[in-house]
Amino acid sequence: MDALVSDALKELKIDGGNTPESEIAANWTKVVGRRFARKCAPERLTDDGCLIVQVAGSAAKQELLFRKREILFAIKELPKCGFVREIRFV
Fold this sequence. Notes:
The chain is of the alpha+beta class. The protein has helices spanning 2-11, 20-26, 28-32, 34-37, 58-66, 68-76, and strands spanning 40-45, 50-55, 86-89. The chain has one domain (2-89).
């Protein structure tokens, strides 16, 4: 999953700058927890505030859907991420 996060950061041309995407990536384990951090990764953040999250498997996706509100709250607490309004697990 670390490779997936790294690839996503490269694709988004994020090299550790202080952007919403880099804040989310840097705090991903805190946001979703250690158990899920290995099963999913942020893919991209749309202009309208939707975070697309790549998930490995339907069971993990279902569990993340149950925790969606909690995860969204944690993301909104991060610097520069208050505008995130939705999470889509794919």
